[in-house]
Amino acid sequence: MSSGTRTLVSPAVLARPRGRAVYWTVLTGVVLLFALAFLFPVYWMVTGAMKSPDEVARTPPTLVPEHWSTTGYADAWELMRLPTHLWNTVVQAAGAWAFQLVFCTAAAYALSKLRPAFGALILGGILATLMVPAQALVVPKYLTVADLGLLNDPLAIWLPAVANAFNLYLLKRFFDQLPRDVLEAAEIDGAGKLRTLWSIVLPLSRPVLGVVSIFALVAVWQDFLWPLMVFSDTGKQPISVALVQLSQNIQLTVLIAAMVIAGIPMVALFLVFQRHIIAGISAGSTKG
Asked: Domain ABC transmembrane type-1 spans what residues (predicted)?
């Protein structure tokens, strides 16, 4: 530890056995407290679906189910047609992710490296849309989608998702920090603009592309108002809408189980790609 580094606990205190014991005790307690605060709601949902309806509504509540049962999950899978609605959500989220990644990456690359005329003005106009409340855009978006005949069509989700100013700005900021000499070397070797984007820029941008991907997928997965408006056909509704529409006359344990199942894909996605997500956040905070 360098002499100029100041810490909450001095090295002299940590060098003593009692100081180390107090330090590790406090650190372990704080970590366990935060872990409990974050994980307890998840535990409550997972175990709540394994209780009987009477036990769920009991006061005071039981911390551990008296009789463990997975019938709530089986009933939720069948009664609420979760496979159909989960597949609808996957199709809508995957399409929105692909459209957003392609168009936002292309626009960010153009604004960052191609430097078009009035590029700063265009970027300012794009960022100005972040000041407009999302609710104010619902009616114009709906009228546009209805005029194009895209109601009950996944394109009604995919096309509006392309216009994401935040993700575009995030990509542009990352592209601005890419080494200029690498791009110039590719240009000297004869690589065109598209080849440079595909072979140089995108491989170097994997961290930020991972972060943008997560933002795009989560935004569609958790959205409720817009899918509710554009999908009147219940067979094409995503899981976020179906959980509300089909919750009438459904036991509480079955509804809790359905919510747990609906959250599993996003949790699994984070666990699989957590290294890329954390690397992208770290890169963005360092370069920004």
From this structure: 86-273
The closest alpha carbon to 240, from 252, 223, 253, 226, belongs to 223
The token pair that represents 275 in the structure block: 């290294």
Place of tokens 């699994």: 268
| Burial (CB count <10 Å: 0-12, 13-18, 19+), residue 8 | exposed
Q: Are 260 and 46 in contact (CB under 8 A)?
A: yes
Q: Where do runs of H (alpha helix) occur along 49-188?
A: 53-56, 71-79, 82-109, 119-128, 138-147, 155-162, 165-176, 180-188
Helix/strand number for the chain, H first, E second: 16, 0
Let me know: does 211 contact 285? Beta carbons within 8 Å. Answer: no
Contact 244, 229 (CB under 8 A): no
The residue assigned the tokens 């970027």 is 123
In a 10 Å sphere around its CB, with 0-12 CB exposed, 13-18 middle and 19+ buried, how is residue 79 labelled? middle
User: What tens-digit pLDDT sequence spans the chain (288 residues)?
Assistant: 445 556 666 777 677 787 778 878 888 999 999 999 999 999 998 998 898 888 888 888 888 888 888 888 998 898 888 999 999 999 999 999 999 999 999 999 999 888 888 888 998 998 898 898 888 889 999 999 999 999 999 999 999 988 889 999 989 998 888 888 888 888 888 888 888 888 888 888 888 888 888 889 989 988 999 999 999 888 899 999 988 888 887 888 899 999 999 989 888 888 877 776 676 666 554 444
Read off the DSSP letter of residue 200.
I
Rounded Cα distance between 262 and 165, Å, is 28
Minimal CA–CA distance to 168: which of 96, 117, 101? 101
What gap in Å lies between CA 258 and CA 101, rounded to an integer?
30
